[in-house]
């Protein structure tokens, strides 16, 4: 868990982060920023965060997904073709409920949350937000049989955060 990774924000800021908590059953991890580039003189007050919503979404409520679609077209017959997707893509969709019969805390195979936001390879971990910007889940995958987008539900995110020491949670 202690290996550090360099991350690039869309505004060009570079940070180094390391994983400080990981839950493979819930398919969640917490990264801690351990180093940043020199921000002297830049008008950047803080790093962006999203607060966890106070409760899970209601079925059919609007959602936003802020994701990073991959640059290679993985659906083309020929390999190496590039997409022209923007670095960040915001899509609208709806919360479609939780998958019947799936334990909401077990996202190790496929996420229990179902949503209708457009996603592409590279969106894994993208926040699913209600219209006021609060977090209600994270995109993780899609169901090959139904085509439904899937994600880690609010209930699993909340339970994961509750396992962390209070000094790690904003």
Write a brief structural summary.
InterPro entries: Peptidase_S1_PA (IPR009003). With about 170 residues, the chain is mostly beta strands. It has a domain at about 60-160: Thrombin, subunit H (Beta Barrel), CATH 2.40.10.
Task: Describe the structure in your own words.
- Helices cover 5% and strands 35% of the residues.
- It is mostly beta strands and 170 residues long.
- It has a 6-stranded antiparallel β-barrel with strand order 4-5-6-9-8-7. It has a 3-stranded antiparallel β-sheet with strand order 1-2-3, with no helix packed on it.
For the record, the CATH architecture of the domain at 62-158 stands as: Beta Barrel
Principal-axis shape equals: globular
Number of strands: 9
Query: What is the arithmetic mean of pLDDT?
Result: 90
Instruction: Give the strand line-up of the largest sheet.
Output: 4-5-6-9-8-7
- Helices and strands: which structural class? mainly beta
Oligomer: single chain
> What gap, in angstroms, lies between the N and C termini?
21 Å
Q: Which fold does the CATH topology of the domain at 62-158 refer to?
A: Thrombin, subunit H
Report the radius of gyration as a whole number of Å.
Answer: 17 Å
Amount of beta strand: 25-35%
What is the share of helical residues?
under 10%
Biggest pleated sheet = 6 strands, antiparallel, barrel
């Amino acid at each position: 868990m202690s290996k550090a990774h360099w991350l690039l924000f869309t505004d060009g800021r570079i940070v180094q982060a390391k994983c400080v908590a990981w839950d493979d059953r819930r398919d969640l991890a917490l990264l801690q920023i351990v180093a940043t580039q020199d921000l002297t003189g830049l008008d950047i007050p803080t790093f962006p965060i999203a607060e966890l919503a106070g409760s899970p979404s209601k079925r059919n409520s609007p959602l936003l997904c802020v994701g990073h679609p991959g640059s290679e077209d993985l659906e083309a017959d020929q390999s190496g073709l590039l997409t022209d997707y923007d670095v960040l893509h915001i899509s609208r969709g709806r919360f479609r409920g939780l998958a019947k019969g799936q334990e909401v805390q077990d996202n190790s195979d496929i996420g229990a949350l179902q949503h209708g936001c457009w996603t592409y390879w590279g969106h894994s971990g993208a926040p699913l937000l209600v219209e006021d910007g609060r977090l209600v889940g994270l995109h993780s995958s899609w169901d090959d049989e139904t085509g439904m987008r899937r994600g880690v539900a609010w209930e699993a995110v909340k339970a994961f955060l509750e396992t962390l020491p209070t000094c790690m949670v904003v």
